[in-house]
Amino acid sequence: MRAAVIRAFNEDLSIETVPDPVCPENGVVLKVEACGVCRSDFHGWTGEHPKVKPGDILGHEYCGTVVEAGAQAKHKVGARLIAPFILACGSCPACQTGVSNTCASQIVPGFGTPGAYAELVAVPFDHNLVPLPESMTPALAAGLGCRVTTAWHALTDRANVRAGEWVAIHGTGGIGLSAMLLAKMLGAQVVVVDVVDEKLEHAKSLGADAAVNAIKENVASAIHDITGGGAHVSIEALGIEATTNASIDCLRILGRHVQVGMPAGETGMMTVNMRDIYGKQLSFFGTRGMPAWKYPTLLDMIERGQVDIRPMVSREVTLSGASAELAAMRGPTPPGTAVITDFTQ
């Protein structure tokens, strides 16, 4: 099969012909129809993720058609499926109590096992996979990736966002834009924060109530003014110290901060405003992924038109084009996300 392989960190991926994956007994092999290009991939491509090494294949936001099924697989050849990026074992206490995104035996393609920047991908624990709605294109399904699902879990299960509340979102990349669209669907008021005016205007055109440019304004002061006392919920969508502290500082008393952005490499250790957390009696939540059992409800909600996530996907690229998308993440990126849909180039 054709695949995009890391041969050296921070260099273009190598487009190679590599052996087809072996079908797991408890899973399937998918012919990849689309795969998102995610900032988490960027951290692997730069060498900041401990599980990514030269010779690996990235790609954890994918959908496809089953071309081979193992003896213990749940799904059959021909099924069109979408995959959560966390493949949970299904039998441990975390899985049995509904929090499979915390499974200690989880497998994440692209981070320790070959991912979906390739024509084929092996998927163990295929009970995690969910049928792809007929009305949903592969590009849109891959665009859900970890960004829409992670944002949904962050807003509903972690922060318990309620209608009428103010939600601040720091960073309007894939996660941030997803969180904005979903928070509006939940009836919240949303203020977005970024350093790129084009992305802020894009978010406002899609429904954001207010926008703050972090270069031009003091974020916390601006949000306190906009919201009349501070946000009820603040979503950090980058994983860096500056935005984490801005998220904490912009909250009102008893506010809820949700750390969605992945702190990677040197940003993994931060100095945060513990005085505000203590003094304002804030709640500080971490979150990662979404349990697989929540996928059907989210997909059904999207299919019925309760939320339009089509603005999430702004670019469809070739397999070889993934390198340019990753390199662009070194600086401010344009609105929307990129999805690989052509694996022949």
Features:
345 residues, alpha/beta, 7-stranded mixed beta sheet, 6-stranded parallel beta sheet, 11 helices, 15 strands
Structure notes:
The protein has 345 residues and is of the alpha/beta class. It has helices at 39-45, 93-96, 138-144, 147-158, 174-185, 197-205, 219-227, 241-249, 274-279, 295-303, 322-328; strands at residues 2-5, 14-17, 28-37, 62-69, 80-82, 120-123, 130-131, 166-170, 189-194, 210-213, 231-236, 251-259, 283-286, 313-318, 337-342. The protein is built from eleven helices and 15 strands. It is globular, with a radius of gyration of 20 Å. The two termini are 12 Å apart. The mean pLDDT is 95.
User: Helices and strands: which structural class?
Assistant: alpha/beta
Uncertain runs are: none
**Major beta-sheet overview:** 7 strands, mixed
Q: Report the helical percentage.
A: 25-40%
Radius of gyration: 20 Å
Outline, from the CA principal axes? globular
Question: How many helical stretches?
Answer: 11
What's the N-to-C terminus distance? 12 Å
What is the residue-mean pLDDT, rounded to a whole number? 95
